[in-house]
Amino acid sequence: MSTNTSDRTTVAILGSGPSGLACALTLSRSMVETIVISSDGTAPRNTASPFVAALPGMDRNSPAEVRAAIRKDILSYPFARFRNSDATALQNQASGFQLDLSDGSSVFADKVLLAMGMVDIYPNVANLADYWGSSIINCPFCHGYEWRNTRWGIYADRQEVLDAAEVYRHWSNELTYFIDPSLHLTEERRTQFESLGISICEALPVAVNGTGGSLTEAVFSDQQPIAIDCMLVFPFQKQTELVTALDLQLTSDGYVGVDEGFRTSVSGIYAAGDITYAGHQNTPTALHMGNMAAATIVMDLCFKK
After folding, report:
1. Staple partner for 294: which of 26, 60, 105, 192, CB 3.0–4.6 Å?
2. The whole model's pTM is what?
3. Cα–Cα distance measured from residue 302 to residue 305, given in angstroms and rounded to the nearest whole number
4. Concatenated DSSP letters for 27-38?
């Protein structure tokens, strides 16, 4: 039901993933009033993952279990509230920021943390969604252990994937590289692949098939299928519509630019988590970034920045 009511808080956090929740917990322990804005109907990016890996004390707990545990900790303090809605607009005002929500209400905040994560753009591979998060993975550090010493397909649609073969080889010695024909594989690199025992297929799969929820093969338009047990895919990413509508400085590859304290180019707006970098995107890193952003926010409040 729509409402025209408004709410005020010191900090508004957009997103309830690891970075947003870590920020809310640190702000709560710093006695800073906070509202975490996120719709229960919006599936987190890691929903399909069977577990969160390498998180000390919660290794191999499901993403929902991790979020619930952190949220319980947050609510043990009287400083944070959760709003089950999405922010549709963010306006910079003289007295702070106005956030318009999808339920028709507004929140006014002195500071805002953007922690909504990125939007993944999946490659055009039929049936990919059926195996995404299980036998199609996007992080060997997160899920490589479960697929160690099995047959891997590497979906190589950009140069940096070609450059990381030695890393993926750590988890399995049965790698087949599916290489976009538009990429240039030098003879030197081809020789290196061969020395590592890596098979080369100079085409990208158009579909994947499997049985019992597990991959069995990658399918191509003009050649025989190739047997695999898992496939490593790094989706391209884009910012949410709310972020693209803001006048924020972005990096050359489209991520929100931040300083060492996770301040954006707009005073009073901070950003943390996957929204800020294309590197090793995972839960422990996002938790760290949210915690550090909270510390910066508290210091800026104290120094009235």
Report:
1. 26
2. 0.95
3. 8
4. HHHTT--EEEE-
